[in-house]
Predict the 3D structure of the following.
Amino acid sequence: MRSILKVNWDSNLPIYAISQSELQKKGIHSLLLDVDGTLVNRKSNKIPKAVKNWIRESKKLFSLYLISNNPSKKRIANIAKELNLSYKYNASKPRKNVTLSAIKEIGSAPKNIAIIGDRIFTDIIVGNRCNIKTILVKRLNRNGLPIKFNSTLTIEKLISNFIK
């Protein structure tokens, strides 16, 4: 039995450094993208230029869909509008109902979908519960750079290793 805490690809990179060709090699056609921490800093509405560029290039190769636990429809809608992407907010990850709804809207087979996020206990667990690929990325700071030390992720990894 596969652990729901297992990360398929622990990139140790910010999202904008993820290689689109590597994603294609893994058979990925569609991406569910976490928002807070993954695309933008949790305390900022400014989407870093590197993220915008990565999204622009990724749209040429994949279907993209934002999925966020953030309860602010306004915040997620504004980010989605700026990136011209469909979205779900208040997703309650790791619960899978909203994520399954997004997967259904995308229309790809689960084996060809990956979720990219910065948290094991939300993004990775929901990806595993929905039988899609999981990609862990570094959380972004206010300047759009990867944070050097993520205490939340460190604790999540310790617990994940203990539970295995």
About this structure: The mean pLDDT is 95.
